[in-house]
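Objective 1b of the project was to move from sequence-level analysis to a structural picture of ligand recognition. The entry below was assembled by the postdoctoral researcher (A.K.) and checked by the PI before modelling. It contains the amino acid sequence of the target and the SMILES of the bound compound, nicotinamide-adenine-dinucleotide.
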Amino acid sequence: MLGILGLGEGRSLISAALESKKLALKTLCDISEAACKQRSKEFDFDHYTTRYEDMLSDPDINIIAIYTPDHLHAQHVTQALQHGKHVVCTKPFIDDLKDAKALLELQAQTGKKVFVGQSSRFFEPAKRQRKDFEAGEIGELITIESSYHADHRWFLEKKWALEDAFKWLYGGLSHPVDFIRWYLPDVEEVMGYGMISANGKKAGLKNEDTMHFIFKATDGRIARVSGVYTSPIQPAYRESGMTTVLRGTEGPARQIIMNCVMRLLIKRARKKPSPGAIVL
Ligand SMILES: NC(=O)c1ccc[n+]([C@@H]2O[C@H](COP(=O)([O-])OP(=O)(O)OC[C@H]3O[C@@H](n4cnc5c(N)ncnc54)[C@H](O)[C@@H]3O)[C@@H](O)[C@H]2O)c1
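Corresponding predicted holo structure:
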């Protein structure tokens, strides 16, 4: 049975769990009672608590899914493992490498499963690109260019976004970096720069919102990633939210993940072009 901690993005798992034939949802948990009540009403599911301890000590719950703010993941994963639970944790798994060793050791010691909910691998364009790659369509992989550019200034409204602990290096860049590591797992060197943009400074951000990095794998292949989060973007049909280009000996493969609203607008524009509109 499943318990879900953090009911913002945690909403996505509530809806999936309620549809699942494999697992049953037992408890929703959020420190905010208002969030508990909102989700309880939305999903007509009345078993919730504001105390994480209630889920940790519930013997019926064997999996805890963690959707709290990034900087709390290490602590919440640790508590779940210490209470003998399997863990699903949304990305980024942790936001500070100093926590990595102890968590790896604890996982090995408890033998419990830890699954990082790196959702972008399961988006349809990413799955199709992977399928083509595995079928050998692009030949031998030469290099990868991946990016995640999004106007996430709305995110700065969240209380934790302006805290010292909030880092787009982990929260945002984990998506395109994961695409690189999917194709080039043996990265041995990374170099690059990050900065706080003028928009980020104005908003009061404490950590970088604009980053470019180069990766080198043990076999000598290189890749690049970039993330830009507080600047306006071009319309999505010019510049998508998340992009991964694989360049292979037989050709390239480009994967574009757009947000749903842009998809809908493009679909409508295709059906009914208004005078002067660009038909895609
Ligand atoms: N594509 C994805 O996989 C994806 C998308 C969005 C967010 N996320 C991740 O999900 C996590 C949550 O993001 P969000 O956008 O929902 O943030 P949010 O601030 O909207 O929601 C976080 C929730 O956690 C609750 N919370 C905070 N501290 C808590 C505590 N100590 N105990 C219990 N509950 C607590 C808050 O009350 C809030 O309801 C982040 O790690 C984020 O990076 C992943």
